[in-house]
# Entry
Amino acid sequence: MTSQGDEATPRSVQLSVDGTVVTATEGDSLLAVCRGLGVEVPTLCYGDTLTARNACRICVVELDGNRTLVPACSRPAEEGQVVHTDSARVRTSRKVVLELLGSSVDLSLTKGVEAWNERYEADPSRFGPSAAPAGIGERDRRVTGEHHHADPLTAATVAQPAKIDNPLYVRDYSKCILCFKCVDACGEQWQNTFAISAAGRGFDARIATEFDVALTDSACVYCGNCIAVCPTGALMSTAEFDLRGAGNWAPERQHETTTVCSYCGVGCNLTVHVQDNEIVNISSPSDHDVTHGNLCIKGRFGYVNVQPPRRRVKD
Amino acid sequence: MDLHFTAKDPTTAERDAVDDVLGAPLDRTAVDRAATGQYLRAERGGAAVRRQRHLLLPALLALVDRVGWISPEGLDYIGLRLGVAPAEVYGVASFYALLALEPRLTRSVVHVCVDLACRMAGGVDEQRHRYEDSDTLVVDSACLGQCDRAPAAMVTEPGAPARHRVDAREATVIAQCGEASLTLLRRVDVIAPTDLDAYRAHGGYVALRRALDIGPAAVRAEVDAAGLVGRGGAAFPTGRKWAAVAAAPGQPHHLVCNADESEPGTFKDRVILEGDPFAVIEAMTIAAYATGCEHGWIYLRGEYPLARARLEEAMARARRGGLLGPNVMGRGFAFDVEVFRGAGAYICGEETAIFNSIEGYRGEPRTKPPFPVEVGLFGRPTLVNNVETLINVLPIVADGAAEYRRLGTVGSPGPKLFCLSGSVRSPGVYEVPFGTTLGGLIERAGGLTEGRTLQAVLIGGAAGSFVGPEQLDLPLTFEATRAAGTTVGSGVVMVIDDQADLVDLVTRIAAFFRDESCGQCVPCRVGTVRQEEAILRLSVGKRQRHERAHDLEILHDVGQTMRDASICGLGQTAWNAIESALTRFKLFPEDAP
Ligand SMILES: Cc1cc2nc3c(=O)[nH]c(=O)nc-3n(C[C@H](O)[C@H](O)[C@H](O)COP(=O)(O)O)c2cc1C
Ligand code: SF4
Ligand code: SF4
Ligand code: SF4
Ligand code: FES
Ligand code: FES
# Structure
């Protein structure tokens, strides 16, 4: 149980991280404390603009007196805690989480994974060759409670064709680690549109519209705020998706210009990503106090008015 | 919020089913697109409508009860009525095994149990065939909580009203029926379950009267002094929990009676709920009184139709008798109870998953801390107790802690219900004092089935562990089982004889966890899959030695990570029973040829 501190004036507390005694503000996350100390803690589902969801468990640390490991991203700092960020148990859990994700999800665009795999000696291939990808909509039709018979000689994955159903962005759920960030951004934490939700259960859980209808039949307003928080590239603008598909995505040839959106008077910062004199993405800085990284369809995708899309939706 | 609905209007039957739960819509034109000819983009009613979100799951169940499945139109109608986006309604509906999102147009649906006790009772396949006909859809189910009557199935016929019945072997309710030594089971099968006068004549409502006489603090002190320990599986001291809820700032407090009972092999709560529903209601009233709760919820698994009917009837009679309602026993204390029906999800027995389920969200466990005693149902301090835990309060309050402690051991006081199933002559629920040995308990159930020898006992359910015949002297207490590397858990004692296939049981346990994981966290969502795959590889038998070693290493690493890094008890225990079978029974010896 957390102690009932006076909320108006947060207490400062002392705790130890890997033997270093540190003073922190009560209620700060252990992640913030570690980062303040320069202790690296990997994170995947944590986002600086969202409430921690504690789903990926890659950030676990060992806390003396706790039966299990605890997620650094959401466990608040408390007086007297003794935290270990690199114990054998921590290393094993981080290694296996990387292996479980790496063997079931396409992490090729997830930042940090390669270095973490090396650091924790993770070997995602240890579970055997990957199972064949699911067909279009197949994973969306899985029935909850019905046992999905495993082929033990291959490792089950979430591989499936990308969902391309609108001109603006693509959902490639074979890259989805189910971090829930897009759902939270689309729902009550930012956008309040609730176009998508987690659906199904267990390994069949997925992000979906109702009955897997196309985005164009859903409540989606194409704000792209889900794209902004997606850590894996599962959600991606069509412009970027097509360039990548054609082998022409070249970050080294890109530059970013931050400006102010001219559509309305709110004053959202826009970061325009340009490659070869062509706008390839628009984002907003997550630390900007007007947008917190969010935009609307006009800021995010309105650039098609100055620069017609390279290509229409593939069917 | 700007809701967006695309589907066509619901059928009359669908609309009626939902309206039965939610009441008639206030503004008919707002929910009838045929009348307005417009897409429904805005919900009306604002916060007052959205505050009813706890009716989401009941409304979904009502649709399935009436028409057999949840159509896009029916789903939209619920969303529209409650001000919840269809994607969210879909997210909730697709969480539960008893809710169908594809047309089910047969006259009946049969859920055939394919779990541990029913497998051992023989022929899951035969069971499936038994129900097959053109007008029946047969689906597999995890344990139905009828293991003493295995093999079991649940038959559902949608309609108005829907009919649900459990189809299982005929058996006596309890073998100990009427024995003078019984405390918890003393009324079961002795009185008519919903006869309030008979309940009173057999000691009912003595405890509540005493509680109201001595006051909440004294009740809590009594429960604390009795050393009551939670029976739901986590073995938490009840007195401490009650003290924390009573002291929690913020009103109202909520009470949840956990009757989800989905741990494979567990059926004790069902026997109580079906056989002595007033006891549960009385005990909840005392718990509410002692901890400042105004409202109680019984979260009842959807597979217990008889328990539901008996509870509803008993609650109505208690209300009529002034034992529930605004003025309980005329003493100025207000308390009422409602039954909340689950919809097929083992994880919804986890205490924080219950909150999400009742509130109309996906039944995913929440992160602790904060703990339920501080932030629980609807964000309020909440007391969650198991059915069996609660009914122990009756003798504690009626006769005092000292009397209660005469049974059991210092660390595990009082009587305990065990669920005996598998290869025993008289399977069923048995009430014995804590400290009874495993062998003694099996003897109590008539001993092993004729002509069989003991191979193993599964204690504590799928989240528990297998022990061997050398453990027959093990005293069944929290402390002794812990020391022996096993657990009392939910009171499962499943007896496995020499003819049962342990590999098959272990494989089923792996499948169970894969199916029942909520999918929220990586260690459990993917770990349970890798665990099942490795078990299946090992059970093929034709593996090379280094391949076995490799798979065993996978099981250990993944198991350790599920235990250490999962959010909740499901993932944390998903490796327990399998680990025990591997280490204690050398199921897949590394050095086998
Ligand atoms: C996956 C899972 C399923 C559970 N199922 C049940 C259940 O069906 N009934 C129950 O009483 N407790 C269940 N529990 C334990 C509850 O979380 C909780 O500890 C218990 O209801 C508290 O009551 P007690 O203190 O009276 O034991 C479950 C826990 C987990 C992790
Ligand atoms: S683009 Fe905006 S509205 Fe559409 S799914 Fe993403 S967050 Fe939701
Ligand atoms: S699509 Fe991206 S943001 Fe959404 S859950 Fe998957 S990985 Fe997370
Ligand atoms: S451990 Fe399993 S059931 Fe529990 S939260 Fe994680 S995925 Fe869900
Ligand atoms: S980053 Fe902490 S659980 Fe995912
Ligand atoms: S009812 Fe079939 S195993 Fe419990």
Summary: The longest helix of chain B spans residues 545-565. The radius of gyration of chain B is 24 Å.
